[in-house]
Amino acid sequence: MIEALVSIFQIDVLIPWILAMVLGIFVGGVPGLTATMAVALIVPLTYHMQPIAGLAMIIGVSFTSIFAGDIPATFLRVPGTPASGTAVLDGYILTHKGKGGLAIALDLFCSAIGGILGILILIFISPLLANFALKFTHYEYFWLGVLGLSMSTVISKGSNTKGFFSMGIGVLLSTVGIDLVTGYPRFTFHNSELMGGISFIPVMIGLFGISEVLNQIITTNNIDISLKNADISDKTKFSLREVFKEIKTHFLLIVKSSVIGNLIGALPGAGADVAAWVSYGAAKKTSKHPEEFGNGSIEGVVAPTSANNAAIGGSWIPALVFGIPGDTITSIVLGAMLMYGLKPGPLIFEQEMGLVNQIFAVGLVSQIFLIIIGFAGIKAYSYILKFEKNIINTSIIIFSIIGAFALRNNTFDIGIVIIFGLIGYFCEKGKIPLAPMILGLILGPMVEENLRIGLVKTEGAFLPFLSRPISLVLFLIIVLMFGLAPIKKLIKKMFTTNKEKK
Amino acid sequence: MKKLLLLLTVLFVSSFFAFAQGETEAEDFPTKPIQVICPWSAGGGTDRTARFVADELSKILGQPVNVVNKTGGNGSVGHQAGADAKPDGYTITNVTFDICALKHLGYSDLTPAEYIPLLQFNEDAASVTVSADSKYNTLSELFDDIKSKPASSFTFSGSAIGSAWDLSRLALFDAAGVDPAKVLYVPSKGAAPAITELLGDHVDVITCSYPEVAPQVEGGSLKTLAVLSDERNPQFDNIPTAKESGIDCSYGTWRGFAVPLETPDYVVEILTDALEQVINSQTFIDFMNANGFGIKIRVGQEYGDFMISQYEGLGPMIEKAGYNN
């Protein structure tokens, strides 16, 4: 391990590695550009490097971009990556309360801590976890999806009915496109654009980003501007002492969220975005102050950001142990390894232990670089925030549109951003929460496809969804999550009424 | 009158210039960057080959060649964009096997006839893979049991409904004379999730290309029974063909390049020549070998005929499976 650490500190590894991490800040910071795209573009450049230099670039860019996605989410309410959808819920509120700097600094440190924990789990128990992940099939993924969807009532502020309604819209939207189970094109009206389905990234950019810009443009005419240029720079300031104090207070939550994130990341059927949502819901469910969530809760910032970076380490678990991708990035990695002349898969631990150790070392050291480069990124963003509000708003729109287009090089997605910007604006006017809609769009296919494919396997029998150990546990968690509170209430009520009778 | 004469002269001269300009354009193609449309997402196999060929192509043509991923709809979005592009040779489509199935599946009206074929450079035969501790060691043993055991005793997987590996399965069953409905088919988003399912013992058999399962086969967790090609592949000649098990079936996926109809002949010629230079180079062969992609070359008309015959063959197969939407 020491040998591996020393070997990665050479100029022809360090330079591409750090450059890739800086690129990650940019990719994560621009909505629509994803870590997967960055990795796909980087890989052809690495064919002539030594394998560890190429892998360091990929690992570095994944960590910085997942963190950097939180920056525009926190400051501007535009999630930079799918995994930062949760950062708008509390981070942006904190920015409005003048604590944006604290929120983003917490994001940075918790991302690094989550990253370290994720890598440590990868180092020490990856074979165990990988075997556990293999036990997951459609039945288990179905319940995991249901668990995630049920979070929509947990995460939404205010009316549960409206949260549920919003989630339903998301689920319905996710059914557009070619159905995986039958191959039938649904709701496509013979339009080849709709055939590809409604991609959730442009929807997310529209719902959160564009709708907020609209909201600001419309309200600033009436009310005086709350965010004056002078105090914006203050809003990105923070004291390190405060950051460390919060980390200390919430350390257990950070560890818990990282473990959840890592486990979900290790499942080939779920990634960093699902990890962030589930850990957010779990944090709220177990919090002593659930009412603060959505109103600028520190816990609501800390939990998802730890989880999504821990998920990166998780996604490498099946990739290294079995040679099967844990997410889209690791699937590109497996292809790149072939180009480096490596054989990914079960034999890698025997034949390339030196390289595996180097990967671990890169993963850990990347977290230190992440903090340094991340600070630079935050600083750069703070400068942007010093511009006039109208310039910022215009650039949000421009970047949102470019980002949405870049995703699939499709002008159709620009339309999606604009339409959902309007939908988002009117939903907020009607106090319909937006987060459940995104959740429905992300998890709808997970629930639907796994249920239907599971039923294909069992020829219609529902029993395996309950009789398998892991699926039963997941089912019980869902039952307890929603059943426990009413049951407790009922017992309490019975108890008190009995007393009264006496 | 003088004015009219002047006007006519101007018109004549300018039209001459316009014509002359057209002429020079005709002589040197390309004069601006070329775009390669890849109907599949960045980082996948098709994207990787497209980017490699694009790099090599730009060295030969002296113009940047950029890969643009237009994904969605089982490849229909990208293939459509490529067919609808301006027929000037500046937009090339990285056509894949799926173009032959799109119309039959009801995803698009596109057929291979809507392109001018340049060349095909790749072919990956499907292979049939089971778990290493499965009791089957040959394809014929497996099919004997599929025939004799009750329906739905076996679960297959490999790709989405109507995609390459599912269609390969249909072709295999067709050749073996067994109704494909006798086994359950678990659709998956691609080979990788199907391999995961097989490793976890959640399905019994998968169909996909051999290089995709090679790491697990060599690592001892999976076992490939046969490859669906006419001859054994020299790169992995320990894997028998289906023919050797008495099932005459060769099927798989392929990749190639095409341009929209009405692209001028001289442009087609320049592009084909340049592409031929690329795919005959040692660097290309090394790249394909390192990635485990098979090389199969069909140029021009031969490639076009191949696509049309495959397109026609898929019609009855897809109808029989009930996939025609």
Shape of chain A: globular
Radius of gyration of chain A: 23 Å
User: Could you describe the largest sheet of chain A, including whether it forms a barrel?
Assistant: 2 strands, antiparallel
Number of helices of chain B: 11
Oligomer, anyone? Answer: heterodimer
Helix-residue proportion of chain A: over 70%
> What separation lies between the terminal Cα atoms of chain B?
68 Å
Structural class of chain B: alpha/beta
Strand arrangement, major sheet of chain A? 1-2
Structural class given helices, strands, pairing of chain A? Answer: mainly alpha
The CATH topology of the largest domain in chain B comes to D-Maltodextrin-Binding Protein, domain 2
Question: What would CATH call the class of the largest domain in chain B?
Answer: Alpha Beta
Structure summary, number of beta strands of chain B? 10
Largest interface: A-B, 51 and 56 residues
Count of discrete alpha- or pi-helical segments spanning 4 or more residues of chain A: 24
H-E string of chain A: HHHHHHHHHEEHHHHHHHHHHHHHHH
| Distance between the ends of chain A | 70 Å
Overall, the morphology of chain B is globular
CATH superfamily of the largest domain in chain B: Bordetella uptake gene, domain 1
Count of separate structural domains of chain B: 2
Total domain modules of chain A: 2
Q: What can you tell me about this protein's structure?
A:
Chain A has helices spanning 2-8, 11-29, 35-42, 51-68, 70-76, 87-96, 100-134, 138-155, 160-174, 192-195, 200-220, 229-235, 240-249, 251-266, 272-286, 298-322, 328-339, 348-351, 353-385, 389-408, 411-429, 435-457, 464-467, 469-501; strands spanning 177-178, 185-186. Chain A has 502 residues and is mainly α. The longest helix of chain A is centred in the first third of the chain and has 35 residues, at 100-134. The radius of gyration of chain A is 23 Å and the shape is globular. The model of chain A is unreliable at 222-230 (pLDDT under 50). Chain B is of the alpha/beta class and 325 residues long. Chain B folds into two domains: 34-123 and 253-321, D-Maltodextrin-Binding Protein, domain 2 (3-Layer(aba) Sandwich), CATH 3.40.190; 125-245, D-Maltodextrin-Binding Protein, domain 2 (3-Layer(aba) Sandwich). Chain B contains eleven helices and ten strands. In chain B, strand 5, helix 6 (164-176) and strand 6 form a beta-alpha-beta unit. The longest helix of chain B has 26 residues, at 2-27. At the A-B interface, helix 3, strand 1, helix 10, helix 17 and helix 22 of A face helix 2, helix 3, strand 6, helix 7 and helix 8 of B.
